[in-house]
């Protein structure tokens, strides 16, 4: 049979293939040669031997030949049976595949053209997407399948498979309405079939583009409630718009228009005798789509291409194009009760959509003109407010009843931001901050919400200008959800609506303008939004996500919880369909900002005009809430860029419940009281060196370094990052508790640094109390200019000090510019790291910091402490008393008259002259010294002052043992001069580079550092 409508090409699948037929084996021939060969052999043997017994072999030939012939035929039959079995199995697989493809093709066909019973029973609103009537279902029957099977049939089984593949049972049989459809049979059945056709057509065509006309009478009264006639001839369709006409001569003599217009509005008038339409006086250029009902074929008007003859509720025959070809179907029927119910539902949808146009909707609505409160609304159970005007009056949106979350779409210039502002202003007018609060996220710079920023309802404004604030919002919102869960659990409530008035927990409305831009810049916020969308209803947290094109941007798990949908003007019809289920938002003209379509979760879009938050409304919200306390904030402010020492206690003791940091942090054993009293000045000095931001706990806490727990402290950061300030802040804490003597700085000339390290390493301080903190600024460059042996020994002793510090009560706080600039052994000895600003994110992460907290530009003292952001207290060294230093002043060189002096120097003549001016007659030791001088040096008791270079002293090596035992050795120079006279592997005290200093080694004593007297002066030189 021929299909009544061509199949959708997309339903056609890749072709299948018939299995090849099993080849018939050839019949084996009789083996003549195999039979004659034994006979010939037997005769030859008999001729040779003469024995008659030889002739017996002649009989074996025929016997073997016959046996071979029978065995060959048996093997052929076996191969044929095996091939047939395999082919039957492949045929079964082919049949199963054909059946599966038929099932899919059948489902696709019904999805494309739903049955009228599913339309009248469905809860979804009509599609109304077609601009002209399209083919509809007249019944269920057989149609040509799109499944292709290639191959030539070889037997009846193959032909049966091909026939089965070509037939699609249980498929929708379609009719083309443009050429007219007639229904013939018992009048009740014919009307039921015509109703089924009209339901399908009216459910798909746009009421503003296609009109419908039906006769008078109770059978067709429901048609007049449809919106497909609520326009005059000058409506959107114009005079050439298509019209669907139902002709039922048995009902009334003339078909009726669908609205107050006359039958001429449809362009068709019927006759009682023949039901043949005639043109009305005004006429139309387009022929109507006719659905004709008659009891007999002869009563049908001519020109109908499809005729459905109904024999019963489950039996009908379709005649197409007046030929004898016919198709048996089960007709599609819709009862009068079902049609009336569906007509009422469609009429309600049409009324909500105001398909007559925008009549009754103003072009501009001021928020101050709308009611400020809705009767019976309470934030514990409702957030109902009027946000605009629809055809029937003020439009009310309720995030609690219609939500819990909302999606808002709108292209640039559609009035999206103004709508959000009006909605928030309406909420602020209706509910106090104790019941509703706003968190505003504006990725257009923050100006959209500027008029309401000062309202006590606003707990924060996050913009795209501050990346760090957006990341803090992630952790804070997670903490807010946890806190709300804890509050509900404490009172045994499952939902915020169950809380009593005594529980101070306001609903939190999170509004995100330009949601797409936020997700593109901060993808990690997507997971937080999804979490809020899933749990927000019971916790009282509501999302309002606005974007130019939410379709494809908002995750499915988020959009599934956004029952409230608002679409202002959008550019693409698909965006309007995705948001509000209709294309109307794409049809809003560009010169109508604020015009929108809303779906409040019931599948019934409503067109409205969004209100404008005029100055009167915003002022009214400010006045109404002026005396009210601010809403509780879900997070504290970002850390300040500078913190004075006296400001830290106040920042830790904020009245903001979200910032009550000190007590909460103390529970973890990591924070301390804001300060201690300095006994010398009776002044409270902070015991913390900074302020820590803990957005995941919705608080701030004290940054405290406890050496006994944390170990030595290393402060790392680039130049200008506040390293010295951080060390001063740490030193101030130690000084306030233990006094100036507890603090030692590794600073000053390198001789002082060397002496400090030596004394700390050997623990020699006499009766002074032991120091508690060694402060080293710029540890990575502190020893860079030192001689190699001194630098290595200094680092070795520092490392030993740090290893033994716990037992000795000595701790180290150092700073460095380059993390890798500190030797590996020292680097591992630091247990605590204060990471200030680094040049790159990679360098920060290499130092052990959190890359997500890195900023390109940071204030001095801003950094990370234990994985959280910290701001160090601003404690400049000039405002603090200088700490004690272990190093002492370098005494001047003092020579006793008549002493034996041996001076090795790099400038013998100049130094000898200087000694002579100071009253010490010196002899310069040359390579050819006189015998008297050499003799005096060789005697142990001869007073002599000899000056020479390292080479000169080495040349007289025989005198060295006596000199080392009896003379005071003076060394002015470096390591080569020192080792020329002093045979000691121990490094002498380090001299300052370029300073007038020397080493002095008395007989049998240790080497000490002294100041070389200046020319013409015998005064001490201080370090």
Description:
With 1023 residues, the chain is an alpha/beta fold. The chain has six domains: 12-104; 119-147 and 159-353, Rossmann fold (3-Layer(aba) Sandwich), CATH 3.40.50; 367-625, P-loop containing nucleotide triphosphate hydrolases (Rossmann fold), CATH 3.40.50; 645-702, no CATH class; 705-879, Rossmann fold; 901-1011, no CATH class. It contains 27 helices and 42 strands. The strands form seven sheets. Strands 15, 16, 17, 18, 19, 20, 21, 22, 23, 24 and 25 form an eleven-stranded mixed β-sheet that branches. It is flat, with a radius of gyration of 51 Å. Residues 1-12, 230-239, 253-285, 655-674, 676-685, 764-768, 878-882 and 1015-1023 have low confidence and may be disordered.
């Amino acid at each position: 049979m021929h299909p009544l409508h061509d199949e959708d090409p997309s339903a056609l699948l890749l072709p299948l293939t018939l299995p090849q037929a099993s080849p018939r084996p050839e019949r084996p021939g009789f083996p003549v040669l195999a039979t004659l060969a034994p006979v010939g052999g037997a005769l030859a043997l008999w001729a040779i031997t003469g024995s008659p017994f030889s002739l017996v072999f002649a009989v074996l030939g025929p016997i073997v030949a016959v046996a071979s012939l029978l065995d060959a035929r048996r093997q052929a039959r076996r191969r044929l049976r095996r091939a047939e079995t395999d082919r039957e199995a492949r045929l079964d697989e082919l049949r199963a595949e054909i059946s599966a493809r038929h099932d899919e093709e059948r489902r696709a066909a019904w999805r494309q053209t739903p049955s009228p019973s599913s339309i009248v029973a469905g809860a979804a609103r009509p599609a109304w997407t077609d601009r002209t009537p399209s083919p509809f279902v007249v019944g269920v029957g057989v149609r040509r399948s799109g499944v292709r099977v290639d191959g030539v049939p070889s037997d009846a089984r193959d032909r049966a498979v091909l026939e089965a593949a070509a037939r699609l049972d249980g498929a929708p049989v379609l009719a083309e309405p443009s050429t007219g459809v007639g229904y013939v049979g018992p009048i009740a059945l014919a009307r039921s079939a015509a109703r089924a056709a009209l339901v399908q057509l009216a459910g798909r065509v746009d009421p503003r583009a296609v009109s419908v006309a039906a006769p008078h009478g109770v059978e067709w009264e429901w048609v007049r409630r449809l919106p497909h006639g609520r326009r005059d001839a000058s409506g959107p369709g114009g005079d050439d718009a298509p019209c669907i006409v139902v002709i039922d001569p048995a009902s009334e003599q003339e078909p009726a228009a669908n609205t107050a217009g006359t039958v001429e509005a449809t362009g068709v008038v019927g006759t009682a005798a023949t039901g043949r339409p005639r043109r009305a006086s005004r006429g139309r250029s387009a022929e109507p789509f006719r659905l004709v009902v008659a009891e007999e074929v002869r009563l049908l008007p001519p020109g109908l291409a499809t005729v459905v003859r109904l024999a019963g509720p489950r039996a009908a025959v379709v005649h197409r194009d007046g030929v004898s070809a016919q198709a048996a179907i089960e007709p599609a029927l819709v009862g009068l009760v079902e049609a009336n119910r569906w007509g009422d539902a469609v009429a309600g949808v049409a009324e909500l959509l105001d398909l007559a146009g925008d009549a009754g909707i103003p072009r501009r609505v001021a928020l101050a003109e709308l009611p400020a409160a809705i009767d019976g609304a309470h934030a514990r159970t409702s957030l109902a407010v009027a946000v605009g005007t629809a055809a029937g009056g003020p439009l009310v949106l309720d995030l609690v009843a219609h939500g819990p979350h909302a999606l808002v779409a709108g292209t640039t210039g559609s009035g999206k931001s103004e709508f959000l502002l009006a909605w928030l202003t309406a909420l602020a007018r209706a509910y106090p901050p104790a019941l509703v609060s706003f968190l505003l996220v504006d990725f257009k710079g923050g100006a959209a919400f500027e008029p309401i920023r000062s309202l006590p309802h606003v707990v924060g404004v996050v913009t795209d200008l501050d990346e760090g604030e957006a990341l803090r919002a992630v952790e804070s919102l997670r903490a807010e959800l946890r806190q709300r869960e804890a509050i509900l659990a404490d009172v045994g409530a499952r939902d915020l609506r169950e809380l009593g008035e005594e529980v101070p927990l306001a609903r939190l409305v999170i509004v995100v303008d330009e949601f797409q831009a936020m997700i593109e810049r901060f993808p990690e916020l997507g997971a937080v939004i999804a979490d809020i969308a899933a749990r927000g209803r019971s916790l009282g947290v509501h999302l309002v996500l606005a974007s130019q094109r939410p379709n494809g941007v908002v995750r499915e798990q988020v959009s599934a919880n956004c029952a409230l949908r608002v679409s202002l003007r959008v550019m693409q019809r698909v965006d309007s369909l995705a948001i509000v289920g209709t294309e109307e938002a794409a049809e809003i003209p560009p010169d109508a900002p604020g015009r929108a379509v809303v779906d409040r979760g019931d599948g019934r879009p409503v067109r409205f005009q969004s209100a404008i938050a005029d100055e009167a409304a915003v002022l009214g919200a400010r006045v109404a809430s002026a005396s009210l306390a601010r809403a509780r904030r879900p997070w504290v402010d970002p850390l300040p860029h500078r913190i004075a020492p006296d400001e830290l206690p106040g920042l830790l003791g904020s009245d903001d419940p979200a910032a009550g940091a000190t007590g909460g942090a103390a529970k973890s054993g990591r924070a301390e009281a804001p300060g201690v009293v300095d006994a010398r000045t009776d002044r409270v000095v902070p015991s913390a060196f900074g302020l820590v931001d803990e957005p995941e706990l919705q608080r701030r806490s004290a940054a405290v370094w406890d050496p006994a727990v944390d170990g030595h402290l290393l402060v790392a950061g680039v130049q200008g990052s506040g390293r010295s300030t951080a060390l001063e802040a740490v030193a101030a804490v130690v000084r306030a508790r233990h006094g100036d003597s507890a603090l030692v700085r590794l600073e000053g000339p390198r001789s002082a640094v060397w002496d400090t390290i030596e004394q700390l390493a050997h623990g020699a301080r006499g009766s002074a109390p032991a120091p508690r903190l060694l402060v080293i600024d710029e540890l990575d460059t502190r020893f860079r200019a030192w001689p190699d042996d001194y630098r290595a020994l200094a680092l070795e002793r520092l490392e030993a000090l740090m290893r033994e510090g716990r037992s000795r009560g000595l701790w180290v706080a150092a700073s460095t510019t380059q993390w890798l600039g500190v030797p590996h052994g020292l680097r591992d000895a630091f247990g605590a790291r204060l990471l200030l600003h680094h040049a790159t994110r990679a360098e920060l992460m290499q130092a052990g910091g959190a890359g997500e907290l890195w900023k390109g530009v940071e204030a001095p003292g801003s950094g990370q402490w234990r994985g959280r952001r910290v701001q160090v207290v601003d404690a400049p060294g000039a405002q603090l008393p200088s700490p004690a230093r272990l190093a002492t002043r370098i005494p001047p060189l003092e020579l006793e008259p008549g002493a034996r002096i041996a001076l090795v120097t790099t400038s013998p003549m100049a130094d000898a002259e200087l000694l002579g001016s100071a009253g010490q007659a010196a002899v310069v030791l040359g390579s050819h010294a006189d015998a008297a001088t050499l003799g005096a040096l060789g005697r142990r008791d001869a007073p002599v002052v000899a000056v020479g270079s390292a080479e000169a002293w080495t040349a007289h090596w025989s005198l060295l043992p006596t000199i080392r035992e009896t003379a005071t050795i003076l060394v002015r120079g470096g390591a080569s001069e020192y080792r020329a006279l002093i045979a000691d592997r121990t490094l002498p005290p380090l001299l300052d580079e370029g300073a007038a200093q020397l080493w002095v080694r008395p007989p049998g004593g240790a080497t000490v550092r002294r100041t070389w007297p200046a020319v013409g002066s015998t005064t001490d030189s201080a370090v």
